[in-house]
Amino acid sequence: MADQRREQRAAPGGSRLTPRAREIVSAARELLEESGAEKLTMRSLADRLGIKAPSLYKHFPDKTAVEVELIAHMLAESAEACEAAEAEHPGSLQALTDAYRAYALAHPHLYRLATERPLPRHALPPGLEDRAAAPLMRACDNDIDLARAAWAFAHGMVILEIHGRFPDDADLATAWKRGTRALHP
Fold first, then answer.
1. Across residues 74-99, what is the average pLDDT?
2. I need a labelling partner for 62 at 20 to 30 A (CA). Which of 52, 120, 133, 153 fits?
Protein backbone atom coordinates (compact mmCIF):
# COMPACT_ATOMS: atom_id res chain seq x y z
CA MET A 1 0.00 0.00 0.00
CA ALA A 2 2.84 2.44 0.83
CA ASP A 3 4.46 1.67 -2.55
CA GLN A 4 1.17 2.43 -4.29
CA ARG A 5 0.86 5.80 -2.50
CA ARG A 6 4.48 6.65 -3.38
CA GLU A 7 3.83 5.73 -7.02
CA GLN A 8 0.73 7.94 -7.12
CA ARG A 9 2.68 10.84 -5.57
CA ALA A 10 5.48 10.39 -8.10
CA ALA A 11 2.98 10.00 -10.95
CA PRO A 12 0.77 13.10 -10.64
CA GLY A 13 -1.76 11.96 -13.22
CA GLY A 14 -2.05 8.58 -11.49
CA SER A 15 -5.66 8.73 -10.45
CA ARG A 16 -6.92 10.91 -13.30
CA LEU A 17 -5.29 8.96 -16.12
CA THR A 18 -6.46 5.64 -17.47
CA PRO A 19 -4.05 2.72 -17.24
CA ARG A 20 -3.39 3.03 -20.99
CA ALA A 21 -2.72 6.77 -20.66
CA ARG A 22 -0.23 6.04 -17.84
CA GLU A 23 1.43 3.48 -20.12
CA ILE A 24 1.70 6.11 -22.85
CA VAL A 25 3.27 8.61 -20.44
CA SER A 26 5.70 5.96 -19.24
CA ALA A 27 6.76 5.19 -22.82
CA ALA A 28 7.05 8.93 -23.54
CA ARG A 29 9.29 9.30 -20.50
CA GLU A 30 11.55 6.47 -21.66
CA LEU A 31 11.78 7.99 -25.14
CA LEU A 32 12.45 11.45 -23.75
CA GLU A 33 15.13 10.23 -21.33
CA GLU A 34 16.86 8.26 -24.10
CA SER A 35 16.67 10.72 -26.97
CA GLY A 36 15.59 14.18 -25.78
CA ALA A 37 12.54 16.31 -26.45
CA GLU A 38 13.38 16.75 -30.12
CA LYS A 39 12.83 13.03 -30.74
CA LEU A 40 9.60 12.84 -28.75
CA THR A 41 6.89 12.88 -31.39
CA MET A 42 3.51 11.21 -31.49
CA ARG A 43 4.82 8.97 -34.28
CA SER A 44 7.94 7.90 -32.33
CA LEU A 45 5.80 7.37 -29.25
CA ALA A 46 3.35 5.20 -31.18
CA ASP A 47 6.25 3.23 -32.65
CA ARG A 48 7.61 2.68 -29.13
CA LEU A 49 4.23 1.32 -28.06
CA GLY A 50 3.74 -0.74 -31.21
CA ILE A 51 0.56 1.07 -32.21
CA LYS A 52 -0.49 3.56 -34.87
CA ALA A 53 -0.14 7.25 -33.99
CA PRO A 54 -3.90 8.02 -34.30
CA SER A 55 -4.53 5.59 -31.42
CA LEU A 56 -2.68 7.95 -29.08
CA TYR A 57 -5.28 10.64 -29.68
CA LYS A 58 -7.90 8.53 -27.90
CA HIS A 59 -5.95 9.23 -24.71
CA PHE A 60 -4.27 12.61 -25.32
CA PRO A 61 -5.48 15.40 -27.59
CA ASP A 62 -1.94 16.27 -28.68
CA LYS A 63 1.74 16.04 -27.89
CA THR A 64 1.50 19.03 -25.57
CA ALA A 65 -0.85 17.08 -23.29
CA VAL A 66 1.70 14.27 -23.05
CA GLU A 67 4.42 16.81 -22.29
CA VAL A 68 2.29 18.33 -19.52
CA GLU A 69 2.15 14.92 -17.85
CA LEU A 70 5.92 14.60 -18.14
CA ILE A 71 6.38 18.06 -16.64
CA ALA A 72 4.07 17.09 -13.79
CA HIS A 73 6.24 14.01 -13.20
CA MET A 74 9.35 16.19 -13.05
CA LEU A 75 7.79 18.58 -10.56
CA ALA A 76 6.53 15.75 -8.34
CA GLU A 77 9.83 13.87 -8.43
CA SER A 78 11.97 16.92 -7.80
CA ALA A 79 9.63 17.88 -4.95
CA GLU A 80 10.09 14.41 -3.51
CA ALA A 81 13.88 14.73 -3.76
CA CYS A 82 13.83 18.12 -2.05
CA GLU A 83 11.40 16.92 0.63
CA ALA A 84 13.76 14.05 1.41
CA ALA A 85 16.72 16.46 1.63
CA GLU A 86 14.69 18.76 3.86
CA ALA A 87 13.70 15.90 6.15
CA GLU A 88 17.34 14.90 6.53
CA HIS A 89 18.70 18.48 6.83
CA PRO A 90 15.87 20.83 7.95
CA GLY A 91 16.38 24.44 6.86
CA SER A 92 19.48 23.68 4.79
CA LEU A 93 19.45 25.48 1.46
CA GLN A 94 22.67 23.64 0.61
CA ALA A 95 20.94 20.26 1.02
CA LEU A 96 18.04 21.42 -1.18
CA THR A 97 20.30 22.73 -3.95
CA ASP A 98 22.35 19.53 -3.80
CA ALA A 99 19.16 17.45 -4.17
CA TYR A 100 17.83 19.71 -6.94
CA ARG A 101 21.11 19.50 -8.85
CA ALA A 102 21.35 15.72 -8.45
CA TYR A 103 17.78 15.27 -9.72
CA ALA A 104 18.28 17.58 -12.71
CA LEU A 105 21.57 15.97 -13.72
CA ALA A 106 20.05 12.50 -13.43
CA HIS A 107 17.15 13.53 -15.73
CA PRO A 108 18.54 16.24 -18.03
CA HIS A 109 16.05 15.80 -20.88
CA LEU A 110 13.07 15.82 -18.54
CA TYR A 111 14.50 18.80 -16.68
CA ARG A 112 14.98 20.72 -19.93
CA LEU A 113 11.47 19.88 -21.12
CA ALA A 114 10.04 21.21 -17.87
CA THR A 115 12.14 24.35 -17.57
CA GLU A 116 13.07 25.70 -20.98
CA ARG A 117 9.62 26.96 -21.95
CA PRO A 118 6.67 28.53 -20.16
CA LEU A 119 5.22 26.38 -17.38
CA PRO A 120 1.72 25.13 -18.33
CA ARG A 121 0.32 26.02 -14.88
CA HIS A 122 -3.28 25.82 -16.02
CA ALA A 123 -2.87 22.14 -16.99
CA LEU A 124 -0.89 20.89 -13.99
CA PRO A 125 -2.48 19.01 -11.10
CA PRO A 126 -3.71 21.47 -8.45
CA GLY A 127 -1.15 22.21 -5.76
CA LEU A 128 1.77 20.56 -7.55
CA GLU A 129 3.73 23.74 -8.23
CA ASP A 130 3.23 24.83 -4.61
CA ARG A 131 4.41 21.42 -3.38
CA ALA A 132 7.54 21.67 -5.53
CA ALA A 133 8.31 25.14 -4.14
CA ALA A 134 7.45 24.42 -0.50
CA PRO A 135 10.82 23.04 0.70
CA LEU A 136 12.62 26.03 -0.80
CA MET A 137 10.12 28.45 0.71
CA ARG A 138 10.63 26.88 4.13
CA ALA A 139 14.43 26.97 3.81
CA CYS A 140 14.15 30.67 2.91
CA ASP A 141 11.86 31.41 5.89
CA ASN A 142 8.98 32.07 3.47
CA ASP A 143 10.80 35.02 1.92
CA ILE A 144 9.47 34.71 -1.62
CA ASP A 145 12.09 37.03 -3.11
CA LEU A 146 14.95 35.06 -1.53
CA ALA A 147 13.35 31.80 -2.68
CA ARG A 148 13.08 33.13 -6.23
CA ALA A 149 16.72 34.25 -6.16
CA ALA A 150 17.81 30.85 -4.80
CA TRP A 151 15.81 29.01 -7.46
CA ALA A 152 17.21 31.26 -10.19
CA PHE A 153 20.74 30.51 -8.96
CA ALA A 154 20.09 26.75 -8.81
CA HIS A 155 18.37 26.64 -12.18
CA GLY A 156 21.00 28.79 -13.85
CA MET A 157 23.84 26.68 -12.50
CA VAL A 158 22.24 23.36 -13.39
CA ILE A 159 21.08 24.34 -16.87
CA LEU A 160 24.57 25.66 -17.68
CA GLU A 161 26.00 22.38 -16.42
CA ILE A 162 23.53 20.33 -18.48
CA HIS A 163 24.43 22.33 -21.58
CA GLY A 164 28.15 21.83 -20.95
CA ARG A 165 28.84 25.56 -20.62
CA PHE A 166 31.43 25.29 -17.82
CA PRO A 167 35.06 24.46 -18.60
CA ASP A 168 36.13 20.90 -17.85
CA ASP A 169 38.30 22.03 -14.95
CA ALA A 170 35.57 24.11 -13.26
CA ASP A 171 35.06 23.24 -9.60
CA LEU A 172 31.29 23.26 -9.68
CA ALA A 173 30.85 21.81 -6.20
CA THR A 174 32.67 24.80 -4.76
CA ALA A 175 30.71 27.23 -6.95
CA TRP A 176 27.43 25.68 -5.76
CA LYS A 177 28.49 25.96 -2.10
CA ARG A 178 29.69 29.52 -2.47
CA GLY A 179 26.58 30.64 -4.33
CA THR A 180 24.29 28.96 -1.83
CA ARG A 181 26.15 30.52 1.12
CA ALA A 182 25.92 33.93 -0.53
CA LEU A 183 22.15 33.58 -0.67
CA HIS A 184 21.68 31.89 2.69
CA PRO A 185 24.66 32.48 5.02
1. 96
2. 133
